[in-house]
Amino acid sequence: MPPARQSEFSFRVGKRLAETCSPSAEQVSANGGEFLGRTGTIATPHGEIQTPAFIAVGTKATVKSVLPESMAELGAQALLANAYHLYLQPGPEILDEAGGLGAFMNWPGPTFTDSGGFQVMSLGSGFKKVIDMKTAPPMDQTVSDDAVAAGKERLAHVDNDGVWFKSHLNGDRHRFSPEISMQVQHQIGADIMFAFDELTTLQNSRGYQEESLERTRLWALRCLDEHFRLTSERAGKPYQALFGVIQGAQYEDLRRKACRDLGAMPFDGYGIGGALEKENLGTIVRWCNEELPENRPRHLLGISEPDDIFTAIENGADTFDCVSPTRVARNSAFYTPDGRFNLSGAKYKRDFGPLQDGCDCYACLNYSRAYIHHLFKAKEMLSATLISIHNERFVVKMVDDARLAIESGDFFGFKAETLGRYYS
Q1: N or C: at which end does the chain have fewer Cβ atoms within 10 angstroms?
Q2: Which of 96, 114, 268, 308 is catalytic?
Q3: 172 is catalytic
Q4: pTM (2 decimals)?
Q5: Is 114 one of the annotated active-site residues of the chain?
Q6: Among 96, 268, 318, 321, which one carries the catalytic annotation?
Q7: pLDDT tens digits, 275-319
Q8: Where are the domains of the chain?
Q9: Superfamily of domain 4-322
Q10: Strand pairing of 53-57 and 156-158?
Q11: Which of 93, 84, 107 is nearest to 155 (CA)?
């Protein structure tokens, strides 16, 4: 039975997109089904998250180059850290001794940790930051069930009990299982955790996808058992919510089966993950959210492009995360309502305006494009800090405004205006 302390976490649905907004006939046809977007409130022991919400990524207990205080100032509601990286360094026991992830990094608000499954699989197969999500091969083409990046050695080996993998830091051999992942994440102490799952690629065969989906289902049950045990054992700690993770690649029957299977389990919410092509994002998210319980939050793992965000929202995703705002900032790219631009260009050398006219972030209020261009050319770390602050604010505010547009009944107008300008 789930522990009574589960009541410390809750989700309340607010306004539904279908009730407040009136899409055109063309929009309804393009979407291919009912609009499932909604607003809501996720209550955690460290505060509430108003959804839809963008969850900024702080992989190693830090948003790269940005102070936690700056993240709070720009409006971030929650941060997501990575269990795989924190397990390797500094080690989950250190975060436990520090009072948990939030206390360790001086972040007072809600926190998430993923299970480590993505990094085990992606780094272990040599794909590093991005799993191979290229176009799926034709049905008659031979595919490998041991997908490895070209020229790379497989560093992760999956069996029904868990995964053996080598550290990308020093080559040491480690073991993750559902139980170990739960133990690590409980020690890290985030408000929301994800169950350990197996991530496949689009290069894996249908047969392997089915096998993997069943493995993930069984791992989900084991995660729940260990989560409940640890919750009771660590009664003095704040309650940590556990989200099940939906896999199934681009197969409708497998996605729906995964949602029905895990939706019947006592998870606090759900993460939608796995391999998919960008053009199928909305369809797959909708398949999942047509099946998942309406009274539990859904988190879409790993998106931040404006068109993807709007697609996710209108198909029922409540929260989503991505490293992109800070990753592109380190290469001098900054977001504006008129698109993404690269500040390293010579035209910015004497441009004394802000990164974005009208932006209320600290970087735009205090620094010019010319100054940040100089910092980047001089290889000064402050350039990444200032652009990261702006990029995170841009995405956070866009999602906040989308939430307000659902509530006011103008979501589709706001979407058309925002995307029309951004991609023009």
Answers
A1: N
A2: 114
A3: no
A4: 0.92
A5: yes
A6: 321
A7: 889 999 999 999 999 999 999 999 999 898 999 999 999 999 999
A8: 4-322, 333-416
A9: Queuine tRNA-ribosyltransferase-like (3.20.20.105)
A10: unpaired
A11: 84
